[in-house]
């Protein structure tokens, strides 16, 4: 799934850092400029100019065994920014960890670019092999005209797999999107994604700034089934809270919550 980068590989899966606020946009993450998206599209880090720390939780389909917790931090470095994060998902018999470090840099007025490195670790039940991998990623954002933005992200461009080899493959993951700001209050966006030989997913969403302290989001995602998502963001002083819900027509709802503190 886009909001979690759900990648099937036979009976197993890989989940990367999730942009929890973008759950409300049906998983669209390529175009935003926030520390969350910096860990899945590092180019967006170039737009950040303040230190921040965040913590979040996403409960897939309200099943406790697939709850995901995240912690992230960002640090501006001139015309670039550094992002670091940790994600954990699962329970005692199976748990996945992902540690990510990414950097994004502005290449002039119209282009942002970034690279990331992800350490994946699968902690499986006794008797099964633990799996490890170091996977790179690259991202770009382009702003050719006023209010228009396009972006792309590639995870695992070299097609690397877990070690020891032969247990689980990691597909190449590609996502690309385009968005347009309708004034300062409304942002429309759409995105396509594909992992390995899976079918292509299409997502579209709208983000509206209701007032200085409130943001509302709506998203729709389509492949074999139609899924939808809702979310709100509330800002109070230096604390930003995001609440989102993703609904799958068969598996049900996946609620999520994230809180961010930005240092002045």
Mean pLDDT over the full residue set: 85
What is the C-alpha radius of gyration, as a whole number of Å?
17 Å
Largest pleated sheet: 14 strands, antiparallel, barrel
Low-confidence stretches: 1-12
Number of strands: 16
Q: Helix and strand succession? A: EEEEEEEEEEEEEEEE
Annotation field: number of helices: 0
Helicity level: under 10%
Q: Give the strand line-up of the largest sheet.
A: 3-4-5-6-7-8-9-10-11-12-13-14-15-16
Q: In percent terms, what proportion of residues is strand?
A: over 45%
Keywords:
264 residues, mainly beta, globular, two-stranded antiparallel ribbon, 14-stranded antiparallel beta barrel
Could you describe the 3D structure shown?
The chain is mainly beta and 264 residues long. It is built from no helices and 16 strands. The protein has a 14-stranded antiparallel barrel with strand order 3-4-5-6-7-8-9-10-11-12-13-14-15-16. A two-stranded antiparallel ribbon has the order 1-2. Strand 6 (94-106) and strand 7 form a beta hairpin. The relative contact order is 0.19.
Summarize the structure.
The chain is mainly β and 264 residues long. 0% of the residues lie in helices and 59% in strands. It has strands at residues 7-9, 12-14, 52-59, 67-77, 80-91, 94-106, 111-124, 131-142, 148-155, 173-182, 186-195, 201-211, 214-222, 226-236, 239-248, 252-262.
Task: Summarize the helices and strands and which ones pair or pack.
Layout: E1 7-9, E2 12-14, E3 52-59, E4 67-77, E5 80-91, E6 94-106, E7 111-124, E8 131-142, E9 148-155, E10 173-182, E11 186-195, E12 201-211, E13 214-222, E14 226-236, E15 239-248, E16 252-262
Antiparallel strand pairs: 1-2, 3-4, 3-16, 4-5, 5-6, 6-7, 7-8, 8-9, 9-10, 10-11, 11-12, 12-13, 13-14, 14-15, 15-16
């Amino acid at each position: 799934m886009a909001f979690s980068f759900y990648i099937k590989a036979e009976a197993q899966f890989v989940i990367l850092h999730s942009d929890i606020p973008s759950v409300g946009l049906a998983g669209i993450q390529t175009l935003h400029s926030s520390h969350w998206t910096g860990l899945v599209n590092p180019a967006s880090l170039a737009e950040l100019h303040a230190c921040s720390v965040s913590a979040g939780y996403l409960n897939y389909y309200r099943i406790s065994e697939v709850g995901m917790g995240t912690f992230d931090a960002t640090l501006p470095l001139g015309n670039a920014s550094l992002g670091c994060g940790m994600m954990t998902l699962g329970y005692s018999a199976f748990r996945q960890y992902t540690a990510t470090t990414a950097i994004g840099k502005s290449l002039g007025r119209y282009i942002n670019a970034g690279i990331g490195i992800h350490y994946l670790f699968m902690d499986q039940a006794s008797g099964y092999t633990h799996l490890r991998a170091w996977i790179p990623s690259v991202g770009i954002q382009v702003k050719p005209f006023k209010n228009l933005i396009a972006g792309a992200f590639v995870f695992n461009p070299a097609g690397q797999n877990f070690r020891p080899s032969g247990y689980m493959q990691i597909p190449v993951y590609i996502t690309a999107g385009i968005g347009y700001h309708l004034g300062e209050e409304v942002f429309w966006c759409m995105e396509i994604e594909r992992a390995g030989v899976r079918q292509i997913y299409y997502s579209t969403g709208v983000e509206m700034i209701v007032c200085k302290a409130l943001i509302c989001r709506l998203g729709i995602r389509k492949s074999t089934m139609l899924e939808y998502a809702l979310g709100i963001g509330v800002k109070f002083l230096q604390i930003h809270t995001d609440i989102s819900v993703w609904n799958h027509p068969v598996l049900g709802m996946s609620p999520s919550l994230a809180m961010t503190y930005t240092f002045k």
